[in-house]
Design a protein that fits this description.
By secondary structure, this protein is an alpha/beta fold. It has two domains: 133 residues, Alpha-Beta Complex (Aspartate Aminotransferase, domain 1); 240 residues, Aspartate Aminotransferase, domain 2 (3-Layer(aba) Sandwich). It has 13 helices and 15 strands. Strand 4, helix 6 and strand 5 form a beta-alpha-beta unit. The radius of gyration is 22 Å and the shape is globular. The structure holds pyridoxal-5'-phosphate.
Length: 399
């Protein structure tokens, strides 16, 4: 049996590999430079073009690009009308922003447990959390796997709730043949560098509803409108615009828009390579009793952001922390996505307690996100697989 680096053996690799990395080519750089040489570097013509492109990719009618995914969730929560006294159901295993957008509006997040196989919000549990105060659901497409849209839409319809899909991980994913972004009342995307496509920082909300679209546009830009039909004090003065509500400056710049358009041209090949890597992991771990992988349902395709595994620490002599450290010593740097949101001290101070979502907590205790990015070579993938297997064998109990 091969000795791991942490026990004095040779590391699996001589150079480190990390869980995520952007890919930027000369086309992206040229697209940005062309804008920098032009007249408009923000609020120019490219935002509309990018939004058209996102509509094409997702199948949504309307798209509103913003400065990051958190801003997208914030204006979506505002457009949903969440306010103090409201409750909004949200997946517990997600980045904090999925719940924070509810708090920004003064409403109360109600954390729902995950399905331990798909790692998405467990649609069976949603209805038991609904009260007369419930106004919406923020459901996260974990790792890029779309949530059960049909069931969640049906629940929202019957209880008159707004459905916000947090698709920060899921650009390019499909559900029953339809693009993520075209299904929920509003869908939010992130273009942070570890995501499938990036422009440094960026985000987007898609919707099929025209009024929601107009509202999102206004919220992105200070709550200001130039559309007389939206004004309380209409005027045809050519310079006149009116702030009709409290909004934000959440605009994306034109050079970011240019970069994202160029990245979106590469989305199919990004997705293809990410899925190839995921298939290699799937094949390698299918007979490893210590490694559990995320179940992917039949009716979806993934524009995959993460590849997570759970290690069965009951069958190992070490816990996840020691396993994580041992992988680092092999020069394989993973991450953990995510601490259940209500276990962050901010939420603990609001009164949320450990034990709320047992599946989410068990998942968190065992989770690791393996390296997954477009430029990983076959040899990188083999290193990750060999490194993980080396450790599961070395640390196996009763071997
Ligand atoms: C599930 C989820 N929602 C929202 C966000 C927020 O996106 P951003 O970092 O672009 O603000 C992220 C980003 O990591 C995320 O993973």
């Amino acid at each position: 049996m091969e000795k791991p680096a942490i026990a004095g053996g040779n590391p699996q690799r001589s150079t480190p590999i990390y869980y995520g990395k952007q890919y930027i080519d000369e086309d992206d750089i040229k697209a940005v430079c062309d804008v920098l040489r032009s007249d408009y570097i923000t609020c120019g013509p490219l935002i509309g073009k990018l939004e058209e492109k996102i509509c094409k990719v997702t199948g949504a009618k309307y798209a509103v690009c913003v400065s990051n995914g958190t801003a997208a969730l914030h204006i979506a929560a505002m457009a949903a009308g969440f306010k103090p006294g409201d409750e909004v159901i949200v997946s517990c295993i997600t980045f904090a922003a999925s719940a924070n957008c509810i708090r920004y509006c003064g409403a109360t997040p109600v954390f729902a447990d995950i399905d331990p196989l798909t790692l998405n919000i467990d649609a069976d549990r949603i209805e038991s959390l609904i009260t007369p105060k419930t106004k919406g659901i923020v459901a996260v497409d974990f790792a890029g796997q779309p949530v059960d849209n049909d069931r969640i839409r049906d629940i929202c319809k019957r209880h008159n709730l707004v459905f916000i899909e947090d698709a920060a991980h899921a650009m390019g994913s499909t559900y029953k043949g339809k693009g993520v972004g075209s299904l929920a009342d509003m869908t939010c995307f992130s273009f942070h560098p570890v995501k499938t496509v990036t422009c440094g920082e960026g985000g987007c909300v898609t919707t099929n509803d025209e009024d929601t679209y107009k509202h999102l546009l206004r919220l992105r830009s200070h709550g200001i409108t130039r559309d007389q039909s939206q004004m309380n004090n209409p005027s045809d003065d050519p310079w006149y615009n009116e702030m009709v509500e409290l909004g934000f400056n959440y605009r994306l710049t034109d050079f970011q828009a240019a970069m994202l358009m160029s990245q979106l041209d590469k989305l199919p090949k990004f997705i293809q390579r990410r899925n190839e890597i995921a298939s290699c992991y799937e094949e390698a771990f299918k007979d490893e009793e210590v490694v559990k992988t995320q179940k992917i349902t039949d009716d979806v395709t993934l524009g995959r952001h993460l590849y997570t595994i759970e290690i069965d620490t009951d069958k190992l002599t070490v816990g996840r922390r020691e396993f994580f450290d041992a992988l680092n010593a092999e020069n394989i740097h993973c991450q953990v996505h995510y601490l259940p949101v209500y276990m962050h001290s901010y939420y603990e101070k609001l009164g949320y307690k450990k034990g709320l979502c047992p599946n989410g907590e068990k998942y968190y205790e065992r989770a690791l996100s393996l390296p997954l990015f477009y430029t990983m070579t076959d040899s990188d993938v083999k290193d990750v697989i060999s490194g993980v297997k080396k450790l599961t064998h070395w640390f196996k109990r009763d071997k």
